[in-house]
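note to self — DONT lose this again. spent like an hour looking for the file last time. sequence + predicted structure for the chain T wanted, 67 res
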Amino acid sequence: MKMKEIDWLAYVLVTVGAINWGLVGAFRLDLVQTILGTSPALGQLVYILIGLSGLYWLYKMTTKGKK
């Protein structure tokens, strides 16, 4: 099954979010803020996109095969 572009993007963002939270929990290292530097608005946008991606994947997994 080939992933659509939106699926791929959401998957990448969810993976980045999971890795980031793992690093925050283990080492108190916020990778997103480290990469983005001092741009709080951009960091907030990235976190919003990661959250929306998580909700998208939750929707995809709970409605899989219910068409």
